[in-house]
Amino acid sequence: MAQSNKQSMGISIIPIVDFGAFLNGGKEEQERVAQQIDEAFRNVGFVYLKNHGVPKEKVEECFEWSKKFFALPLGTKMLAPHPPGGSHHRGYSAPGLEKVTQHTYEEEEIAKSREVPDFKESYESGNVNDKAQPNIWLPEEKLPGFRVFMESYFTLCANLIHKILDALNMALAVPPPGLSPTHSDSLFQLRLLHYPAIKAEELKNNKRSRINAHSDFGTMTLLFQDSVGGLEVEDPNNPGTFHRAGAIEDAVLLNIGDLMARWSNDRWRSTVHRVGLPPPKTVTIPGPGVNTEGQQNGGKVIALEQEDDAIVPDRYSIPFFATANMDAVIDALPGCWGEDNPKKYEPVTAWGYVQMRMAATYDS
C-alpha cells in the first residue's frame, strides 16, 4: 500500500490497559482487565499494555544488543544467514530479502509486490527447544553474550504471552483447559528489526518501503519500539486511513494476528498496519495577545512536511510473534459462533497457515 494513503494526525485510537491489575489483582480485577482487552481487540485489534512484567532495564538492554548486532559488518552478520525461503524463519536477513505482503499467494502477484522491496534488516530467533526451526547464531566470539541474552529475553516474553492467553480465556469464556495448552510448545519468534536511515523522498514516492501494509500471521504479537516513530494502524471503520501508533513509555503494544481472528470467528480484528514516515515535526503559530499569566492566547499547531532530501533516521523495533503449536487446529471457539453467527472459516492447522503466509513473504 503506497505511502500516499490518508494519515490521521489525531489522538491514537489504541486504548491503554494496566495489565499489572491482571498479573497481581484478584478475580474481579482480572475480569475487568480481560473485558478491557476484549473491547480493544473488538474495536481496533491493538492495545497498549502497561505494567506488563517485562523489566524496563531488560527491554533497554535488548535494544542495545540489537544495535550492536546490526552495527556489525555485513560479512559478519551473514555468518548467521536466514535460509532460502520461508520454511525455516531464523537467522539474519539483509535489506531487500523480505517483502511483506497482505494475503497475496499467486506467483505473479508476489513477484509484482517484490518490485518495491522492504528496506530493513532483521534477525530472528526462537525457542531453544524448537526442533523444526533451530536457531542460527553467530559464532560466540563475534558478539559475546548476544546468544545468552536473547535466550533469556525470549523466556521473559514467552511468559508474558502465556499470561495474556490466560486473560483471553477469561475474555472469551474459553472452557478448560483454555488457550495456553495450545501454545505449550512456545513456538514463538523473537525478531530484531533495523530500518536504516533513508531519504524521505524514497518513502514518499514508494521507491522503497519500510514495511508495507499487512496483518500478522499468528495468534498475537508483542511490539517494543523506539521513539523514532513510523508505525501506523489502519482504522478498521475507515479503510485507507491510518493512525499513528508510536511508543508509549514503559508500555508494550499488543495486537491480534490472523490465527486468533479466525479462532474468535472475527470477534477480534487482525488489523492491517505498516511502517512509513515518522510523524512530522510540529510548530505553534502564536495567536494575538497574551493572557494574565503572560502566555500567548490562541494560536494553532501545524505539521511541518518532511522535505524530500531530509533523512529519516534509523528505527529499531523488537516484535515477538506468538503462534499455536504446529498441529493445533484453528477452528471457531465455543461462544464465538452460533445459529445467528455461523463459522466464517474452514479449520486450518497453525503450521499450515503460517507456512502459506511465509512462502509469500520470502523469495526462495
TrEMBL record:
Q: Where is the signal peptide?
A: none
Ordered alphabetically, the record's keywords are: Dioxygenase, Iron, Metal-binding, Oxidoreductase
The answer on whether this UniProt entry bears the keyword Iron reads yes
Q: Which GO terms describe its biological process?
A: small molecule biosynthetic process
Q: Which InterPro entries match?
A: DIOX_N, IPNS-like_FE2OG_OXY, IPNS-like_sf, Iron_ascorbate_oxido_reductase, Oxoglu/Fe-dep_dioxygenase_dom
Q: Spell out the coiled coil positions from the record.
A: none
PANTHER family per UniProt: 2-OXOGLUTARATE (2OG) AND FE(II)-DEPENDENT OXYGENASE SUPERFAMILY PROTEIN-RELATED (PTHR47990)
* Name listed for the protein in its UniProt record: Thymine dioxygenase
